[in-house]
């Protein structure tokens, strides 16, 4: 039962302190760090390889890497090389573009007058 002078709840610092004390007590009872019981069953033992096994694995990996990096790029069947434009073709395109721009400017000037 509350009276007019008691607070409606305990201050946060008091409850936090009591929780910390309870956690410390439980850890002492457990003998140090609290640990989930199923953690111990799910961890696998560390896999240990002999030096010879590590050498075989390393040699195989180096062989795979050498094979991969030594490959020359293979073209797909029917793939064409990139086409290059001749100087003559470039000149024809440039001249046609100049003619189009001249026609456009002339049309624009006629519309302005």
Task: Set down the secondary structure blueprint.
Elements: H1 12-30, H2 37-42, H3 51-70, H4 87-112
Protein architecture, described:
- This protein is mostly helical.
- It has a domain at 10-36.
- It has four helices and no strands.
- The longest helix has 26 residues, at 87-112.
Q: Give me the Rg, rounded.
A: 41 Å
Termini, distance in Å?
Answer: 99 Å
- Bulk shape: flat
Residue share in β-strands? under 5%
**Succession of helices and strands:** HHHH
Average pLDDT works out at: 82
Number of helices: 4
DSSP strand tally: 0
- Overall structural class, as computed from helix and strand content, comes to mainly alpha
Low-confidence stretches: none
Roughly how much helix do the residues carry, as a percent range?
55-70%
Major sheet summary line: none
Short account of what is shown:
With 113 residues, the protein is mostly helical. The chain has helices at residues 12-30, 37-42, 51-70, 87-112.
Task: Looking at this protein, list some descriptive labels.
113 residues; mainly alpha; flat
